Every structure is written in structure tokens, then in C-alpha cells.
Amino acid sequence: MGSLYRASKLARSRLRQLSLLSSEPSKLRPLPAPEHPDLPCRRGSCSVAGPAVDLGGYPPERIRNFSIIAHVDHGKSTLADRLLELTGTIKKGHGQPQYLDKLQVERERGITVKAQTATMFYRRIINSSDIHNEEQSDYLLNLIDTPGHVDFSYEVSRSLAACQGALLVVDAAQGVQAQTVANFYLAFESNLTIIPVINKIDQPTADPDRVKAQLKSLFDIDAEDALLTSAKTGQGLEHVLPAVIERIPSPPGKCDLPLRMLLLDSYYDEYKGVICHVAVVDGTLRKGDKIASAATNQAYEALDVGIMHPELTPTGILFTGQVGYVVSGIRSTKEARVGDTLYHARSIVEPLPGFKPAKHMVFSGLYPADGSDFEALNHAIERLTCNDASVSITKESSTALGMGFRCGFLGLLHMDVFHQRLEQEYGARIISTIPTVPYIFEYSDGSKVQVQNPATLASNPGKRVTACWEPSVIATIIIPSEYVGPVITLCSERRGEQLEYSFIDSQRAFMKYRLPLREIVVDFYNELKSITSGYASFDYEDADYQTSDLVKLDILLNGQPVDAMATIVHQLKAQRIGRELVDRLKKFIDRQMFEITIQAAIGSKVIARETISAMRKNVLAKCYGGDVTRKKKLLEKQKEGKKRMKRVGSVDIPQEAFHELLKVS
Q: Where would I find the Tr-type G domain in this sequence (predicted)?
């Protein structure tokens, strides 16, 4: 009976498939396997119901590789979801929103941290007057979801290098924002075909004509080229993929050349090891091939090869122009460097241009909130860096906080995301020291040193500092025109140099400033949002080092420097910052049985001081009258005891004190 039931069930499923095939074909029907009888059949398993994937049926001219770039909260992830649904890559209503944003921090903050890829199969039907002579063309579309923030600009540039075009998404109500400008120029400098998409046209405040005028004014994009869509309601989405096929060129690689692959990103899987997202530029990759890295000269075996459709879908092969994944036995993501060239071992190829190692621009100390939790923090950092090899980690020791780590990050957002992931995903409780940037100091003997940790900058009477340099950034700020005055004042206070000032339209101003990276590393963005009632948008890109008058500011408790609180500041701001630091510390350090002096000093010169008086027992309580000499003797004895306690006593610095220091700019 069981076999009869299974046979009946199989027959019913076959009938359902036949009825579906006999119905009218959809223009956006998912297409796992096109018919190309003249090409060899190379099949692999597929993660969705349907025939196995035959990648051999998609020559480069039938492939389109593109990305979606946008400012935060302009609908990039929602548009990606709709395209995946329209092509049948995912089922509508199944799975979580923002499908390609795998990390919790990405969904919470509306940003992309890790590059993701998704392969879509699309059948384009060209309408004809004769319904029996409709032309059908099958395409393979690779969506490469890239990080959008400048902190990950190198990763973005490598991901865009695998694309030939990009959808530039702009909110129909908010218009062009700071990241829109930055992302446009990243794509423009990568020679990508840019398709403007004005999204959220269903909003009551949408003004597509105004946005078209902004695109023309800032980027010289014709209004007729813009697509009007609403990813939320689906309005206008039927024009997006045809525009991708018509406007974006196919990959330029050659099938008959030796294999060259661009490594887009990687992540660690507990069962498979490191999984690399790759774009095949030239040649063909097959499962079992021996491959090598141009950056590390290490050789590996391609243990598994496939595409993301939308999850890992083994195919056993990747052809020229295709984007997928490879599992090769790499044990650490530190070996899988973004931008690296992978090629067949024992072959000689020219590495793909543009590779460079990670450049760390923001440094901070990380310590466990409870000194006994160092091993737990160490374990959490080891697990997290398995998926984020761009962080530099070295162990360090602090007199105030014990054992911890000195961490180097690509930028401010990278640091914030790393801290958030440590706390949310791995449950670590951390204390972060004041973020700093890499400074360069030149001494009188001509030697130069780069300082990433202010505590390591020792005062040497034999060598005098003759010159200092600090990194700078080019900041882009877009604000409503009524806030121009306060923003100019803020940038001037942060030692900014105005480079450009213009009006996008009658309502919004566009400004560019050169700012020291140190001045925006803590609270610049929050203050900018505050003085503009939340309407400002801000982005920045790395610029050159510039000369500056810098000094090391030490914090001393009872005459002993606290290395975790040392910082490097501009000479003109040292007095104010020193005063603010000691005032804040006085509020958060608890009174002890002995007096505590808090000092801010530059070298041997104290520039600010506060005193926390000691808690004192009333030793005169038992003296009822009597000779005054008896009282003086008791007070002198107490005073001597306080001195001895001060020499051997230690000051406990609460976690809140370090958090307060982060607010002092």
C-alpha cells in the first residue's frame, strides 16, 4: 500500500508540473536550466525546487553582473528582495526581510557590512505581433551586494570591479544624500554603467521631478534614464531587469585564457571552513582543480564549487563571467584577502590589478568589563575575527584595566560594528578606550615613528619632536539651507577647511570640508545631527596626512599616569580637553578612604587638576571636652594613616568613567 501511495503522489505531482507548463509563460518565470542543445550539459544540485542548474548554457554575452548602491534607508535591501522574488530565486513572503543582510547588525542599522552575492535566472520575452513568434532569451544575472560605507571603500571597489553596472537607488522624498554622492563616484571611477532608480514613489511626500533635477545637477544624469519604482508596492519593478540587460554590458573576460578569479569576500563556516565569494574573470573553475593565491602564494584544492541561489548551490563548475563560491580548505579568513587573484596552480598569470592590504585608520583598546573575563573576551574576539580578518588584534596590558587588546579598524563605522557584534552576538562585556588615529612624529635626529597607541609615545629629553602629521578626510555634508551657519561653525571648531559650498536646489546645501580624522572620530556625526534637527547627511573619504601641532595629554591619579586614558590632542585644544576630562572623572570616581588627585598633564606640566576628598572617620566623637592637645594628637595620627594608605592604595576606575571620556572631543 505504501508503494501505491507513493506512486499516486508522484503521478499527481507530474500532472501539476504539466499543467503549469501548459499555462501562459510569465515574463519573470524563474529559469533554472535553459535549452542549449549545442552546449555540453554540466549539471549540479539546486537549492530550490526545479531542474538542476546548467551553467554551461550561459556564455558571457548572456550574463550581467551588477550591484545596488544607495544611501542608508533608501530602499536598497527591499529592492534586492523584490528582484529575488520576481526571478523566483526566493519565494514571496518566505524568509526574513532584507534577505541578503545576514548579520543582525546589518538589519538593525540598515547597512551592509559583508559583501553577498545572489545568482538569478531570468527569461526575457520580447513581445511580437505574432504570439507564436515571441522571442525568448535566457540570462544569468549576478547581484553583488556591496558594503555602502566609506570605511569599507576598498572592499566596495573590489566588489564593483566584478560588476559592469550598478543601480543607483535614490529616495523619491529624501533625494540625493551624502552617501549617494560617494557611491556614485565610486561606481563612476570603476567605469560602471549607472542606472538611476528613484525609489519609494508611493510616499505622500515623494517628488520624483525634484530628484531628477538633482541627479542632473550633481551627476549630469538625464531625467529620461531614471526608473521610477516602489520596491514596497512593486510599482515599476517590471522595468528594472530589462534595463539591466539592455544597458549594462556583459563581462569582458575570455573563456580560452587561463583561470583568473577575483576574491570578493569570505566568511568562516564551522563545517566547511572558509567559503570564498569569487568572480571568474577568465577561464573556467572546476571542482577538484588545484588553485593558488597571488597574495599569499599558497596552493589549495577546490573542494566545492557553486553559486549562491540564494544559498550555497553546488554546480561543480564556474565559467567565465560567472560569480559564485569556492570551498578550498582555507582555514582562516586572514588567508582569504579581499581583492586577491586566484588562479590554477602551476600556471603563470598576471594578477588582477588593484589589490592592496587592509589600511587601519582608527585604533582603540578593548578590555573586559570584569578583569577576570579576559579569556572569555579572547575567545569572543577569536570567533568574530574568523569572519572579519580586516581587524588587526594585538594583546596589550594596562596598569588600570589589566590584560586587553589593541585593535585596528578600517574606520569609525567598522569599529562601532565590531563592538556591537562582540556584545550582541558573543555576549562580551567590554570597556573601550578613547579611539585614536595613526599619527606620525619626527624627532630632532631625523627619525620618524608612527604612533597608534598614545601610551607608547614616551617623553625622551634627548630627542625633541620637530614635526607632527595627522590623517585627514574629505567630508561631504548635505543639509537643509537654513542650517548652513551652525554647520560652518561646527566645522570651524573642528579645525575644518572649507573646500566647496553650493546649493543642490532651493532647499538644500552641499558642502565639502577637509577635516582632521581625529576631530570626527568620536561625536562629530551626533553633534551634526543635533544642530540640524536630524536632517544632515554625512560621508567622508580618506585624504592625505597634514602637518599639525600635536601634544600627548596624560591623565594622572595620585601622580601615577593611567595609560588607558592617554590621548593625543591639538595644542590649542589641550587646555580645554584636559579640564573637561578631569571634571568628568571627578564625577564618576568614587571617594576612597584617602584623598585622590586627578591631573591632566602635558609632559611635566600640569594643566588641570581636581581633588576628591577622602572619606574620614570622626575620631573626635569620643572626646567630650578635655584638652585640645588630645584632639590634635588624634587628628595627626589619622592624617599619617591616610598618607600610608595613599601610598599603597589603588584607585578603582568604574566603567562609566571610560564611557564619559569618549564624549570629550
A: 61-252
Sheet holding 304-308, edge to edge: 299-301, 290-293, 341-344, 260-269, 273-282, 323-327, 304-308, 312-314
What pairs with residue 228 in β-bridges? 198
Between CA 367 and CA 485 the distance in angstroms is 40
* Binding-site residue positions for GTP: 70-77, 145-149, 199-202
Show the cell assigned to 419.
563592538
Q: Where are the alpha helices (DSSP H) in 494-555?
A: 517-520, 524-531
- Name the grid cell of 458: 614616551
Under DSSP, is residue 249 helix (H, G, I), strand (E, B) or coil? Answer: coil
The angle subtended at Cα 187 by Cα 385 and Cα 473, nearest 5°, is: 65
pLDDT band at 130 (very low <50, low <70, confident <90, very high): low
Residue numbers in the known binding site are 70-77, 145-149, 199-202
Amino acid at 609: R
Cα 107 to chain centroid distance, Å, stands at 13
Dihedral sign, Cα of residue 381, residue 383, residue 384, residue 389: positive
Dig out the grid coordinates for 400 from the structure: 588600570
152-161, 379-388, 502-511, 590-599: which is most confident? 502-511
Which tens digits make up the pLDDT trace of 585-613? 888 887 777 788 999 999 889 999 999 88
- For residues 338 and 147, what is the distance between their CA atoms, to the nearest angstrom? 13
pLDDT at 10: 40
For 198, phi and psi rounded to 5 degrees? -90, 110
